[in-house]
Amino acid sequence: MTKPITDTRSLLGFWQLMGISLGTIIGAGVVILVGVGIDLTGYGTPWAFILALFIVLIPSLCIAALGAAIPASGGMYTYVRDLIGIKAGFLYLSLLVAGQLVLANYAIGFSEYLASVVSGLNTKAVAVAVMTLCYVANLFGVKSAAKLQLVMVSTLILALLLFIVIGLQNVDSFTQYSRYQDIAPNGISSFIAAAFVLRFGMIGSEFISELGGETKKPGTTIPMVMICSLLVATILYVLIAIVATGVLPLDQSQNQTLAFVAKKIFHPAAYIVFIVGGVMLALLSSLNSVFSWCTKGLVVAINDGWLPKSLGASNRFGTAYYLLTLFYIVGMLPILTGMTLQYIAILGNSLGIIFGIMPVLALRNLYSRNPQAYRDATFKIPIAAMKILPLFGFMIYGFGVYLSFDFIGVYGIAVIILYVALVLLYVNYRAPVVMALAKDKRTGRSAVSIP
Q1: Is residue 447 part of a domain?
Q2: What is the mean pLDDT of the chain?
């Protein structure tokens, strides 16, 4: 099983956790989605990012409050298990595993951008190599992966700042960002729709709660990192959106990636630096971030009895290598089967929305089920707000699922329903063992054997 970290020198500090959080947030979203936002709302795109911050902030505050009250490795699984129910906890984890199909998006996107500056590349082979690189890096433990992450994110932010500084010098006027007819040229509904689309580029900070057991002072650090990383990402995104909308006529930048605008403002050599140090590192850092936290909940679930103990075996770096390999395989499947970037993104995000709402709703039960944890938390939400905010989060996530239905199609929805049905069958079969083990732990008896 994964060994708990007792040496505080091996724990993650604020900046290392910031690197993981920013690396998760700043990825394919900002690179791809800015052009979609421009198509929907034109010069309103920078403002739509600000609205997207508030859309993302509501569920993020819920997770931050849980992270402060119950800091633990595998955080969101433990929140759902303890505050909703053990069956709901394993359903959450099962959907999370399936949702990591999006790992392929980062690797495929990286390979396609590399092919745009180096001709003749086998993009599938590059995607496989990139996925393997991040997988191997994380086999050496979360501390090693976090060091790599901090270097990548620092380089990434420098590249994005270069895009912003040079790009702003090419924006002739800023008055269009203060006129309603320019901010919402297609009406307020399209502006709101743009914000919901752009929110996909801002999610990810909530998953650092999975690293509660590997973080110094997690009750303070996790909420602080979640909020700070969201604010930093939003500032960068707003400035990037101003450049993307202000340098070229809108009809030229609609539905285009940042690379299209970058090609107009950079000299050829600087353009290559931006693609490699900005766009490609954004994708690589997102991939590395997911690998750093994705196994944590499953390790706790194995300790609870949901899966055989042998699956949680760890190496000398404390990495649950069987579980990390499971996520590596999930991420490789779309690459090897030839799924498109768009389909992977929509399907993965739809699964993410479904499982993502579960820990948000868990906040409603925090005070009633664990009042002492609430009182001791360093970051608190008023008790009344803990009842209201999750409902807003539920509506936000529900709207996101609704927007995805048409693209996923009947076949995709049927696959999701079948997968959930199979998981529920397993949950009902395995639950008696898990409940017996939990009872033994509470009463102090010898634990039952886990088959």
Answers
A1: no
A2: 83
